[in-house]
Amino acid sequence: MTVAHILAEKGSSVVTVQPERTLDDAIHLLADKGIGALVVCDTEGHIAGILSERDITRALAHQGATALDALVSSHMTADVTTCRRETTNEEIMRLMTDGRFRHMPVCENGRLVGLVSIGDVVKRRLPTLQAEQRAMRDYITGA
């Protein structure tokens, strides 16, 4: 399975935020949309970073409530790892695990075309793992 399959099932819409918005704006956007990360895009639509719940939690832990007035650009992760539609499920799991992040923008030809979360990946991987488990159990028990 590839990222293209995941996007075909879940959709490819991505919620973005501008770097000059405040963390307070971003928090409300995350809450309103029920999501865990925002892709930060400049005025031309290029990825400038990603802002996750973890980034916001760190900002609040270090700065308290004053962090809410800070710009998204000051707390986003600027070095964003991206993938492509043809990236396999196994590869994206490895990238997310190695990088210790839960959201990955999908890009094609420099354009943002989707966002995949670790939950999306696990949801699509789980049926395969369950089938493998059943096959192994049947093999061992001689069923």
Automatic annotation (TrEMBL):
Keyword tags: CBS domain
PROSITE patterns per the UniProt record, alphabetical: CBS
Residue intervals of the CBS domain: 8-68, 76-132
Keyword Ribonucleoprotein: no
PANTHER family tied to this protein: CBS DOMAIN-CONTAINING PROTEIN, CBS DOMAIN-CONTAINING PROTEIN CBSX3, MITOCHONDRIAL
Protein name: Inosine-5-monophosphate dehydrogenase
Naturally occurring in which organism (per UniProt): Methylobacterium durans
